[in-house]
Amino acid sequence: MRPDPLSQAAARRHELTRAKAIQALRELDRAGTPVTFAGVAHAAGVSRSWLYTQPDISGQVRRLRQKTNGAGSAGAIPAGQRATDASLRARLTAALDRNKQLADENARLRRQLAAHSATSGQHGPDQVTIQETETARIRPRASRRRHCPPRDAAGHRPG
Predict the structure, then answer these.
(1) What's the whole-model pTM score?
(2) Domains: count for the chain
């Protein structure tokens, strides 16, 4: 008995449709586009109801959608390119270490500058001491800014 040509055509069409849906899903994720049933259906040229009948495809859409929603603004980044918690912690630790090194170097340079100023015999406005540099560092930045009038609705300053 020969296989039914109608059944064979339906099976080929089903597999082709599945392949288009999976390809659309991958392309949306790779492009950083939010993955939704409507988006996948539109990109693949299939109906949303058909997507819901495919457990593996609908599960993947839900997983990617959940990752996007849980990531907040990271939704524009494809899943394969998003930073892991471990890598973010490592970057934070490295940044904190670097900040500590820079703070130590600044303190050392301030001491050198103060020692140089004291030994060079400068006695005037150019003389710098550790206390003066520390005071300048601690002084609120807002007090060093000139007052600027607020902007209007168009973003222009009056006057």
Answers:
(1) 0.44
(2) 2
